[in-house]
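Could you please consider the sequence and fold following this short note?
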Amino acid sequence: MTNSNYAELGQLYEMYKDQGFEILAFPCNQFGGQEPGTNEEIVQFVCTRFKAKYPIFDKVDVNGEDAAPLYKFLKSSKAGPFGDNIKWNFAKFLVDQQGRVAERYAPTTYPLSIQKDIKKLLGSS
């Protein structure tokens, strides 16, 4: 999932960044040790291998008592098909310009498949 998600996120960013679309990436190591590197190593990997031009923040917890406040808000705004918890890396939230969670997508939802939702929020067709 890493290759396809990072590649497609980069494509989405390039397509819609000039219309006000932003991607914020928050690595998490709560899922099978998938993000064991330091924050600097993760940024280096994503920016070098996938040419990411959007912000990659420091690692956060997305589940449990130590979940980042942002993820507590996102999850409480839109539950997933199996409840509030994030099930794996690359869970995605689409947030409108007023800060409301418009949609939540499973880790297996490929970024390019949500283009119609992005266009709708941006007011383009």
